[in-house]
Amino acid sequence: MTDTHSKPLHRYRAIWTSDSEELRQLGLQWLGASRIDLRNIGNFEARLNAIELDTIGLAFGATSCDLTADQYPMDVVRLQIALKGRGLSCVGRRITDIDDRQFAITPAGVPWQMVCQGGHERLTMRLQQAALSQKLASLIGVQPKGDYRFEHTIPANDPQARSLFQLVNFLAQQLDDHAATMPRAVYRELEDAVLVAFLSASRHKYRELLDTPGLMPELSLVKRLEDFIEASWREAITIDRLVAEAGVSARSLFRAFARVRGYSPIAFAKSVRLRRAREMLLSGDPAMTVATAAAACNFANPGHFARYYRETFGELPSATVMRGAR
User: Fold this and answer.
1) Is the Cβ–Cβ distance between 160 and 208 less than 8 Å?
2) Nearest to 268, CA basis, from 300, 240, 227, 325
3) If I label 94, which of 153, 206, 240, 307 is the partner at 20 to 30 A Cα–Cα?
4) CB distance 151 to 89 below 8 Å
5) One pLDDT digit (tens) per residue for the chain, 326 residues
């Protein structure tokens, strides 16, 4: 395994070792493993990059040899995505492939076994069960009851699965490229988007409700939420905050915005931030750059910000800076 800086989350090194005994010792701390078995060691190398955010954890793992790890139960749901090679997730008698055809989901609260073939690389996302339940309640407007465990696989070619994968990749890239400069609100919104994307891509008994339009609320709600977003644009605009402010489910408020405005409340928040960024760039402040304006207005990626800005105002933000300076 070479070219370390091209691997996801390379800034968040947890285990990089060519000592198999060191991996066994560190496995309990980083993998939550009670036992690690290694075979076909040869020129052994193992790598784990990992970071914990507020409601999700994200990790990249790779090993040059065959690895089996018995895992303790944890109150997190795991999404496992193969980037190279093949692995397995074993829960009880159920064995789930992790390969280019499907993602694997390991439920919370159960012991399980991770199996990796030599050369296998994977992304693992850990989602807090409580955060998923809260997000699901916000989306459908009722508190989930009973057992709503997720099915063990997501087909990799499903459009919503591809969207989820792209979002997870984007989050990993932002953490590697911009972690030191990204405002906390950006992380919260990205985590929010990941939770929603996971609930939309995975299979569970509330899945159909996510695709069913909610009741149409009073149309005055749209203006009230727009005023709220205008006043709170510097903060994280999450589904939970919008639902708490509106007093209706996310399905209902998104339906109201689509009916009245033709766009979503998240799209409106982006437009507000673009307007604020334009004001900053026209201010003539010599310290104001495109990158600082993008960060101040909660855009995670300066390149994406420049594209959105040009689509909205018909010019690049750098041209606005030059006009502001004059």
Assistant:
1) no
2) 227
3) 206
4) no
5) 556 667 899 999 988 998 888 888 887 777 778 888 988 887 889 999 999 999 999 999 999 999 999 999 999 999 999 999 999 999 999 999 999 999 999 999 999 999 999 999 999 999 999 999 999 999 988 888 767 789 999 999 999 999 999 999 999 988 888 655 677 888 899 999 999 999 999 999 898 888 777 666 677 889 999 999 999 999 999 999 999 998 888 888 888 898 889 999 999 999 999 999 999 999 988 888 998 999 899 998 888 899 999 999 999 999 999 887 76
Count of Cβ atoms closer than 10 Å to residue 256 Cβ? 23
The residue ranges of every structural domain in the chain are 4-128, 269-325
C-alpha–C-alpha distance, residues 125 and 51, integer Å: 10
Name the CATH topology of 4-128. Jelly Rolls (2.60.120)
The CATH number of 269-325 is: 1.10.10.60
pTM of the model: 0.88
